[in-house]
Fold Response regulator.
Amino acid sequence: MRLLLVEDDRMIAEPVLDTMRRAGYAIDWAEDGRAADLSLGNDVYDLVLLDLGLPKKDGIAVLRTYRDAGGAAPVIILTARDAVDERIRGLDTGADDYLVKPFDLDELAARVRALLRRRTGQKQPVYTHGELALDPAAHEVTKNGAPVALVPREFALLRALIESPTRVHTKAELEEKLYGWGEEIGSNAVEVHVHSLRRKLGAEQIVTVRGVGYRLKRAE
C-alpha cells in the first residue's frame, strides 16, 4: 500500500510518516498544494492524508482537482480547522474522513486501516498461488491453510510478488513498493526481506532470476 501525506508542518508530518512506515506502508510526503497536484497526477496512491491550510494551493482545491480528474483513492483530511462548515465542505468535495489537529496517531492509523480494508475489499479478492494465499483486506497470509505471521514489509513484498506471480520483479520495483520518497533504504534491504520470507514460507517459494530480480515459483 502506498500513501501520500500532504502537510506543510514538519513537526506534524514527521510523526505521521514514522507511524505509517512502522505500520508497513510506503508513504510519500508533499509539502504544498502544487507538489500535491503533481504527486496525485501519477495515480499511484491507495490513500491520501491531506491538510487543508497549505501554501501555494489550498487543500480543498487540491481535493477538488484530484476528484475532478477521476482520482478515486480515499482521502482523510487532517486540519486545524474545527468549524462544522469546514468539515462539511471537505466531505462534500470528496473527502472520506476527517481528523482535527491535534489528533492521536493510533486513531489515525486505525482510520487508515479501516478505509483501506473497505477499498481493498471492494477492489480485489484474496490472491492465491500454489500453496499460498494472501488476503489484503484481512492482512493475512496462509500456506496450505495454516497462518503465516509476517511483519508489514514482508507482507508488502509478498503482495507485490503474488499480484503478478509469473513476472520477474526488479529490485528497484520492489523498493518502490516498500519505501517512500526520501526514506533511507539499505543497499541490501530487499534481499533481507526476501531472505526472511523464504525462511517463513520455504526457500523454494521465491525464485531469484540472476541479474534481474525475483518471482514466485511456478504453481503446480
Q: What stands out?
A: The mean pLDDT is 87. The radius of gyration is 19 Å. The first strand starts at residue 2 and ends at 6. Residues 2-122 form a domain with the Rossmann fold fold (CATH 3.40.50.2300).
